[in-house]
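2024-03-11 09:14:02 DEBUG pipeline.ingest accepted 1 chain
2024-03-11 09:14:02 DEBUG pipeline.ingest length=140
2024-03-11 09:14:03 DEBUG pipeline.predict start
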Amino acid sequence: MEDFEKKYRINNIKPKKNRGSFMQLVLVFALIFALLVAIFAISNANEVVIRFPWGNYPISQALVILGSAAIGSVVVLMLGVFSQVKSKIKMWEYQGKIKKLEKELKEVKEQYETVKKAMEAQNAEDMHDEGIPQETDTSS
């Protein structure tokens, strides 16, 4: 099992080295985008009327723009968290399946060795009963 884990790096998965620089780049682009949205919102600061079935609300267009951007960010964040949780659950399921299959493989190997030894013993007994000389290992 340890060989399998080492070969496929199950328990010692290391993060990629360049992930930090990628995240910094994403953060820079996010800040630039937020700055552009803020500039756009400030330049469109007129008052608008938001109409709902239960009433009309006069509000600054800048607040509508910033609020829409904030709600969009929250939705994207929630979808990202949902995706990560789903991936983690799948990973746990696969790790459980791997452990189960490794256990089954170990049992099958043990059964194979038992059957192999029994067959070798039976073949040796059959050869002895028939008077066939057995090979002796002279190498040791």
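2024-03-11 09:14:41 DEBUG pipeline.report The first helix runs from residue 2 to 8.
2024-03-11 09:14:41 DEBUG pipeline.predict end
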